[in-house]
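Morning run. Coffee first, then this:
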Amino acid sequence: MKILVIGAAGKTGQFIVSQALDRGHQVTAFVHDRDKYEPPPGVEVFAGDVQNPSMVEKAMQNQQAVLDALGGHLPFKETTLETNGARAVIEAMRRAGVKRLLIVSAIGEGESAANAHNWYEKLIMPTLLRGVMKDKAGMESVVENADDLDWTIVRAAGLHDTGSKGEIRVVTPESGEKVRFIAREDVARFMLDELTRNQYIHQAIGIANP
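And here it is:
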């Protein structure tokens, strides 16, 4: 499958790119700064402002799906990068006739607050993540209103870089199950599994490691 990875230079985006290649997908990477990105062999690279639909549309041509792992480097700082980026990506998808979108969000957003541990919800989200959580709320609203697209919002638990834990647990607000962390490598694996499985279309789904 031909896939466009938004935020390919980020920590999660790099895992998506490498795992997609391992699975035989044709990968196009969209990054902010081409000079700071070392793509794996065989990856086509487009660089530009993800908030600009015209720039994104150039990379969108002939794609079959979009995997969006966009995120800022200062999660405590208020920003609209993810919200504006989602708008631009969806506009470019419509122009190019691309339907499938998987996008990373976070446990704690919306009704998934029921799955966040108290220390995370009461301490981490209002402080260290206060900027990014507001932006993710805006992003989710934009995506959920794109009824013409086959979207899946992947709400990840707290991200870490210590390697795959193997098992991925799907959680729902109705269960009230509290979760803590997930490896970025496992977020990438879940997204690529869902890309071909199509089990959670038009859903915001929580994931975590056991």
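Strands lie at 2-6, 26-31, 44-47, 65-68, 100-106, 150-156, 158-160, 169-171, 181-183, 203-208. Good start to the day.
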